[in-house]
Amino acid sequence: MNDIAHLGHVELYTNQFDASLDFFTRVYGLTLTEQDATSAYLRAFDDYEHHSLKLTRHHTTGVAHIAYRASSEAALLSRVAKIEASGYEVIGWVDGDPGHGRAFRFKDPFEHVFEIYWETQRYHAPDVEKPALKNIAQRYHGRGAAPRRLDHLNLLAANVEEFQRFMETCLGSRVTEMIQLDNGRIGGCWFTVNNKTYDLACTEEHGAGTGRFHHLTYATDQREDILRAADIFLENGVHIETGPHKHAIQGTFFLYIWEPAGNRIELANSGARLILAPDWEPVVWTESERKKGQAWGLKTIETFHTHGTPPVE
Amino acid sequence: MNDIAHLGHVELYTNQFDASLDFFTRVYGLTLTEQDATSAYLRAFDDYEHHSLKLTRHHTTGVAHIAYRASSEAALLSRVAKIEASGYEVIGWVDGDPGHGRAFRFKDPFEHVFEIYWETQRYHAPDVEKPALKNIAQRYHGRGAAPRRLDHLNLLAANVEEFQRFMETCLGSRVTEMIQLDNGRIGGCWFTVNNKTYDLACTEEHGAGTGRFHHLTYATDQREDILRAADIFLENGVHIETGPHKHAIQGTFFLYIWEPAGNRIELANSGARLILAPDWEPVVWTESERKKGQAWGLKTIETFHTHGTPPVE
Amino acid sequence: MNDIAHLGHVELYTNQFDASLDFFTRVYGLTLTEQDATSAYLRAFDDYEHHSLKLTRHHTTGVAHIAYRASSEAALLSRVAKIEASGYEVIGWVDGDPGHGRAFRFKDPFEHVFEIYWETQRYHAPDVEKPALKNIAQRYHGRGAAPRRLDHLNLLAANVEEFQRFMETCLGSRVTEMIQLDNGRIGGCWFTVNNKTYDLACTEEHGAGTGRFHHLTYATDQREDILRAADIFLENGVHIETGPHKHAIQGTFFLYIWEPAGNRIELANSGARLILAPDWEPVVWTESERKKGQAWGLKTIETFHTHGTPPVE
Amino acid sequence: MNDIAHLGHVELYTNQFDASLDFFTRVYGLTLTEQDATSAYLRAFDDYEHHSLKLTRHHTTGVAHIAYRASSEAALLSRVAKIEASGYEVIGWVDGDPGHGRAFRFKDPFEHVFEIYWETQRYHAPDVEKPALKNIAQRYHGRGAAPRRLDHLNLLAANVEEFQRFMETCLGSRVTEMIQLDNGRIGGCWFTVNNKTYDLACTEEHGAGTGRFHHLTYATDQREDILRAADIFLENGVHIETGPHKHAIQGTFFLYIWEPAGNRIELANSGARLILAPDWEPVVWTESERKKGQAWGLKTIETFHTHGTPPVE
């Protein structure tokens, strides 16, 4: 097992806290574990930890921090040593949010804050949330889009190649797919620390911002869940940006929406696709291949290239 | 990454080779990579190796060997050392079948032959099988049930607890779920070496055989693929044993059929469920919980407890 | 167009009114239009009338009356004349429940009360239920099983052939499929007044009751909706009797549950199947064909033959 | 029952006969019933007649004729009398193609040829096509997209209102939905003769042609069949024009492709939606409502407004 086991949670900023929280619970279908003065802690019904999304009141939007869980205390320390030796900016140990133990924080070259941690608090379902089948973390409530678990996030960076070095160095991530632009730059890169096809993607920042966020994604069990969710989003006045459709890259069936504060949120399904080969060779897409659009020909919508959070002037 | 990366392939015996081969290609939807005098080498459309199923002419049915791929040459050797030190019966190095390098063979206490290998031959799709999207191994042909990839197999053993020690010792597998009978014995045990929920299950042998086989499973992307396959099996006169339904254990949506020679074959879908927790605690099911039947109440069909291959007198 | 346009609504008795109402609204996903001292009026999100289910407090369970809507006032009167001339027991005109105009009531030979009516009150969605797309009756709320519309009901009768004459005479129904028992009796008969494959089925009463009810069914858009509903029923402690599976007869994908008072309720999907042929020949199933079980081999569960409402001593 | 029971078949012209026939059988999944020197007769697996698509060699593309089946011989004659009295151009009785009896032909004001007929030859499945369940017309072969039945077609006309009068007068069709443009013209109109939501649509001709054809559609049982078909089309190099997505009008889940000769073909799913109300009020969409795009926001692709067959110079 790698030092880093999996993406654990993501903290998003919202400048419309109440509307965002209503969206994530009632419409998107996450469950609120706990709430304090500044943040709400949320999870999908089969996320095993205290939270996979921390939603925080702020004067703007975007991502506050990205957390990966280590495979053990020893793996955590081993990874910390590598990060400290790497030269990347270190913030250091923090106490950890409700729901997990101390975390080691550091930054990528584009101002995104990462943390890694080992100790965690498993979600213990209160009686009303006890599942009929004990192998899921919480009952399937069927409320809103009701995704099963956190899947991945997508960051923006001015230099994706530099970001790739960061991910390989600090998290031991491997690249599963990437876009090679005609100008030689890497247009996008998809990373994983385990057998998922990706847990983090980074695409080129076109908006001149730093530390910006593209989207956060939860996984559904079936593609039909996404078609059904499209109707739920429609009926609830949620801005549907694009989809449902199938990505050419990674083959994921997707639907992109904007939560009330403007953070882009995806709902996705990868079917039975996994990266099982230990010596997987990254799939490299050329610029001309990308111009064909998504898998079934949908052209990428303009805002997909320009809208990130926080917005840039 | 673990020493052992994933289940690589399974060799099944058939005493009705032509009928079995016709079933696996035309009806179940696998692709024939290569065939020699005694065996056919088959794979699902997104299996990345030369084959995931070796189908071999034989005087009876059942499993001939089970192969796992190691994570590297070093991992292979490290694992071999552990197996040699374990006291389990060793067969030793063999040249390896078409499609992969040398393999180290050994046996569990119930006469099932396992092998581990590192070097492999990736499937290179001939022109007619080239996919439109380069991130899948072969075009999606949509022929028959058309599963995406090998998923898992299920063996029978007189003593599941002993089998569990073997899996932990020899493959470094971890247990994700298990059945604890009232008499103290373990009725069944589900193992994985990676983030899949399981790649091998072992259930108690009720037929007084040794080295017997319960079923082999490929994964579909969607549950709808399984409902559609049920009609295809029906129209092709395939014996449908039970399903489609959802397992209580592991929550897998399943359909069991018997290929023409009598080996039980499953088609399954796990949705977005993965074992991401590095410290996953095995889910333990009691005998009374099992008596509730499958997830939605389907009672386990009698043959499911008695039919294994090869048949016992 | 036939005199009779479609099944309009069904009135069910419950001796556990509150529990039944909670089930039908929160779990099954119907919407309450109106409620008075004795009854609740409910509909699925795309039922265009005031209600498709009237749920009435009673000392026992079963069906109170079955209502079909005529194609016009003239068609209603023409049909009334035929019923009056038929010799079947007539109750006569009644004022009509909330939601529709006067209705003409009559009985089949097995004590089931039918009514036909023309004037109806369309459902006008209050603001909170206004759909985003104006071609559905109400917003898709996605609550519980959330079926689209009323589909059919199934009655029990001691003599199905006699019941068939009643349906043909009184409603102008045509038979789309039937079961011919070896003893010459008709074991079951499926009727329609329009292009649906059936709106009412009648199967042989094995419980020595009269006027008994077998089940009521709403239709979902997709089979996946039924698989998802199975989890919702499971999580809400609803008794799942059998399914999901596919009927051999009519090919309907089904799931049977018992609402809290014991009335059997189905959720079903017929795919794109319709009866478009004006000269459709009834499909006749023999007893030996029925013994094969449902489409994919599921054996019919014992209670399916014995459980009806109200219960018989 | 109406005089006209249902859309029976459509004859399409192709100037690439072999490629079109290969597409419709191998990729789209229809079955060839019969072929002569100029035409191939095709049907979906559950179409009950000899053919639902006649594919004819021609110097160009487009629709040759549209055929509806009457409800009886008397209904046919009654309808013929109405057409003859209508003043619309009459071609008169023709012998009828293989598979059905004499047909009465007439034209709409935009040069589309219609016919109505009563006598028909039911499809008798040869042994190899016999279904396992006798209530479908042919075995479910699962080949290609494998739709269940013919659904509808879409014609182009310079004056949709005039076309509407034609449909109401000659076929007794009713309008279920329509587009009312700001300039007062009707932009599109959806018609049905039975409980299907529509069997023919007519949209405004923007290409200055006459007698032109927009698309022909078959129905699948599930939306998942359409997602799966999208991959099959992709792998077979079929031009996917737009979709999969959900129409705002009629709520149909759709996918549009061009068969090799350029005729637009759709695959669609209407879920459980039917028009059961005998007094259904047409749903009228305004121009501004149409500008919102399809149900989930997909903008209508430019070619959808311009591409028809045959092409106009």
Order of helices and strands of chain A: EHEEEEHEEEEHEEEEHEEEEHH
Spatial order of the strands in the main sheet of chain A?
14-15-16-13-9-12-11-10-17
Q: Helix segment count of chain A? A: 6
CATH class of chain A: Alpha Beta
* Major protein interface: A-B, 46 and 46 residues
Oligomer: homotetramer
Task: Return the domain count of chain A.
Answer: 1
Radius of gyration of chain A: 18 Å
Task: Quote the distance from N terminus to C terminus of chain A.
Answer: 43 Å
User: What's the rounded overall pLDDT mean of chain A?
Assistant: 97
User: Considering the protein shown, what is the CATH homologous superfamily of chain A?
Assistant: 2,3-Dihydroxybiphenyl 1,2-Dioxygenase, domain 1
Share of β-strand residues of chain A: 25-35%
The largest sheet of chain A is:
9 strands, mixed
Reported CATH architecture of chain A: Roll
Strand count of chain A: 17
Low-confidence stretches of chain A: none
Keywords (chains A, B, C, D): Oxidoreductase
Domain VOC (chains A, B, C, D): 6-119, 149-270
Protein name (chains A, B, C, D): Metapyrocatechase XylE
GO molecular function (chains A, B, C, D): catechol 2,3-dioxygenase activity
